[in-house]
């Protein structure tokens, strides 16, 4: 099959597709397609080479891998592609940070003019130097307790003022502002711009962090950056920045890169967000969700209160339906009759007891009277006793002339003894 080539018109420059790149000029330029074909033809003559380096980007899309391989001693790097058919033959644990050797072949895409390398084989040599340093630092900080969940500060439910550290005019700043304001329109920010990669990244980020941490009105600080080459994220694994974050009194949220990016800042910060958008969602409540929650709680409260009132009304009606509450006078009437019976019984019991005790008292009174000396005196007897109170029981006790007091049934009188009377004694005996 022959390809049609436009013929040159006399007096006019030849068509671009007919001019070889080496023969091109301002008057007779070559076409982009012809240039790309020439480049591809030149590159096609290159063979495969084995190259050693460190993987700094490993991005899987559509079953294919698009990444970058960095020189071990300089900043030189190349982009590479691994097609899905080749990926199946490679070790499954390849990832960013690995030290590898790879068999690559130069590849040039005519349609887009992109230059890269297709990987035919790749294997581990060992962990990358930078990754090894990060792992050593990770172990050191973990041993010091900087990753301990117990030291992490809680994020306030509704921060009134959010401190934001990010690149100037960056997509990360726009994402945080937009998503936070969509969730809570009245949220406010205090933004400090800092370099998010390169040598200025660490000192500028630390300075911004200290400024926001010293502001008592800032409730939470977000350090945000979009995703990118892991080599560009090394500043967020710097020990100086990590210790500054650990020493801050304000809660810190790390929102660096995408889900696959994981700098050490994520472990030291009080909260990790996979993206700046995710950070806005985690620190700012959704006003619509909160309103729905309040409505739900209010509905539950109304339901519980209604149920409680209904239950109490039913219990009250049940109590009111009982006979004692429906007609309380019946209970009083029954008790009144019982009280009357008890009163009558009490009176009878008391009367019988008083009568019995009266008889007993009369009997005792009669017995007492019978035994009393007064009863004997009433029958005509008398008691004589001397002046010293001694009762005269023998006539010899009262010789002639002795003063004697005589007690009779009614009163006493004084007498004087004339001595013993024999005849009287005989009569008495």
Separation, N- and C-terminal Cα atoms: 194 Å
- Our count of helices gives 13
Average residue-wise pLDDT: 85
CATH homologous superfamily designation of the largest domain: Succinyl-CoA synthetase domains
List the helices and strands and how they pair.
Blueprint: H1 32-44, E1 49-61, E2 64-70, E3 77-82, H2 84-87, E4 98-109, E5 114-127, H3 129-143, E6 161-166, H4 171-183, E7 188-193, H5 201-213, E8 220-225, H6 239-247, E9 252-256, H7 265-268, E10 271-272, H8 276-283, H9 287-320, H10 323-326, H11 328-371, H12 373-378, E11 383-386, E12 403-407, E13 412-416, H13 422-428
Parallel strand pairs: 3-5, 6-7, 6-8, 8-9, 9-10
Antiparallel strand pairs: 1-2, 1-4, 2-3, 4-5, 11-12, 12-13
Provide an overview of this structure.
This protein has 429 residues and is of the alpha/beta class. The protein has 4 domains: 46-127, Nucleic acid-binding proteins (OB fold (Dihydrolipoamide Acetyltransferase, E2P), Beta Barrel); 133-285, 3-Layer(aba) Sandwich (Rossmann fold); 286-324; 377-428, no CATH class. 41% of the residues lie in helices and 21% in strands. The chain has 13 helices and 13 strands. It has helices at 32-44, 84-87, 129-143, 171-183, 201-213, 239-247, 265-268, 276-283, 287-320, 323-326, 328-371, 373-378, 422-428; strands at 49-61, 64-70, 77-82, 98-109, 114-127, 161-166, 188-193, 220-225, 252-256, 271-272, 383-386, 403-407, 412-416. The strands form 3 sheets. A 5-stranded mixed barrel has the order 1-2-3-5-4. It has a 5-stranded parallel β-sheet with strand order 7-6-8-9-10, with helices on both faces. Strands 11-12-13 form a 3-stranded antiparallel β-sheet, with no helix packed on it. α4 (171-183) packs parallel to α8 (276-283).
